[in-house]
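The methods section describes the discrete structure representation at length, but only in general terms. Each protein is reduced to its one-letter sequence and a matching series of backbone shape codes. I believe one specimen quoted in the main text would settle the matter. An entry of this sort, consisting of the sequence and the corresponding backbone structure tokens, reads as follows.
***
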Amino acid sequence: MPGHSKDLTRLRIALTTFFALDGFIFAGWVVRIPAIKEQTGASASTLGLALLGVSAGAVVTMMFTGRLCRRYGSHPVTVVCGILLSLSVALPPLTHSTWALGSVLLVFGAAYGGINVAFNSAAVDLVAVLRRPIMPSFHAAFSLGGMIGAGLGGLVAGSLSPTRHLLGLTVIGLLVTAVAGRALLRYDSPVPQPAPSPQSAPSPQSVPGQPEEHAPRRADPRTRRLVVVFGLIALCTAYGEGALADWGTLHLEQDLDAHPGIAAAGYSCFALAMTIGRLCGTTLLERLGRTRTVVAGGTMAAVGMLVGSLAPSVWAALLGFAVTGIGLANIFPIAVERAGALAGPSGVAVASTFGYGGMLLGPPAIGFMADWFSLPIALTSVAALAAVAAVIGYGTRRATAD
């Protein structure tokens, strides 16, 4: 019906806004880390411990948020976490010790982890209703928000203190949450309508008012195994994103003697390529299907990262980073969507936790391997895990039904 279609369109816009806001706020915080390090007087090691607060808060909260979404609905949880995220980003510049910084980052990380599970759960429900693979478009909004947040942060870093900058992000975040949250709360999570079948009869376990296929999923061993497998795919791809964010620039400057300005463009090439890949993701999925997209993306990322890490010239390495970004772009959204389709918010929580763990595992793992071997050799682990994701994706082709 036209009215129903308009409601779904408004819901999609509201969810897309929250994805973009999440990337915008997180990137705004990241670009002010050096200034806050100086303010707190933290050494590199103590700052690293403080930054673990973001990780710890996010990972713990992700599993808890899955239960909240099942009980209260993913839309209200998304709005509450959006408010908490907007408020908590203003706290780090108010601290003057690493202990205090780590404490407030626990809160920030909890809000960040919570909103990621909540809006991904809401997006999974919308994907099921629309019956179109639009999940990459939401993650493209996150990437675009991050690029805008980082760019804006770079522009104002010389003229605004971290306190004023991050307080400005709080104001923007609360305003956006008020507008998008109002639209989001107006609609309940949509319920997919099953295809009519004369053989199908309502199950006695079905929830009243819901189609049978949307009844609560039983956490049988096969479902749990599949959710973990999709979580591993998310981990393999997020590992590469974290590794390139922290080590790509250093590789270009240290190993290939790139000018600092050119080296800084390394991650930008990767991020821009990933954003473009996600913007094209829905069309790609409609044409190739999930399995082919995962296999092709993982293979492309593996080849691209081998070039990016082992190429003897800067421009070849930049090309490799860009190819890697396009290859990895849609694998994480597919993994989260499939885990959510199998197990609801709990599946999203598991896949998100694995993925976030991979993003955290990448940088330190690359550092250890760089000490043992060399940084170029260490970066080939990104290619190896991308290839593993492709193999696992092919192995789960029956579960993805395409």
